[in-house]
Amino acid sequence: MTQSPTPSTSKLHDDKSIALQIHDINCQVAQFRDLLINIGQPRDGPELRERVRKLRRNCVESCKSTSQLVLPQMRSAIDLGIPADSPNLVLLFFVAQLFLRELFKCKNLVRIVPMDMSASKSGPSNIGNVISSILLCKQITPNFNEEELCSIRKDSAEISALVAELQEFMPQSEADVGKTIALQDCCAGLARNNGARKGNRWDNRAGNPNYFGGSFNFLCCASRPNYV
């Protein structure tokens, strides 16, 4: 007779499944970055731009779907009074940040190096243009570059909001361990939830913290590129 899995076994299976999804997102971001390098190069063309667009959309949807698996676990743990500690959340946070950086580069590249997609069979979706032309009785020519820029801005806003939401549950910096200010933050934090990070040193640091050192060197696209 087959025994039902215990809660701990089920959670371990879920964590492994989420970790595999994050690994897949990391690979997609690395591939997305490699495709961006070819924009403006001899290999650039309508086919490459369409691959960039499809991969970008896949990355966005993968980040959003994976976050829906990670964030509920963190909120549930906080509601139960359990200290929030999720390696998957930390990894997803860093991968999403890397992807957000690539989205910024993608927007600049599409703006600086526009592409004529009129000869492409898989150009921009012109359903909206068809409806507008019917209502306005005027022929509207689809503009792939403008549609792509609008889509990238929308994706960037969604990923930026996701990063901000994940950051609420991020652990404090290890640089604060053993310092008096860290003890003060811990005492002050007893009156607030584990996920509320407003007012501590994590948010009040000057400039952006360095997320790419130490144990996160395994991320395949953490190195700084030499383009854009």
UniProtKB/TrEMBL annotation:
GO biological process: negative regulation of signal transduction
Keyword Cell cycle among record annotations: no
Pfam families per UniProt: Syntaxin_2
Domain Syntaxin N-terminal intervals: 17-70
Top-rank lineage group of the source organism: Eukaryota
InterPro entries, sorted: RGS7BP/RGS9BP, Syntaxin_N
Keywords of this entry: Signal transduction inhibitor
GO cellular component: membrane
UniProt family annotation: Belongs to the RGS7BP/RGS9BP family.
Protein name: Syntaxin N-terminal domain-containing protein
Organism per entry: Cotesia congregata
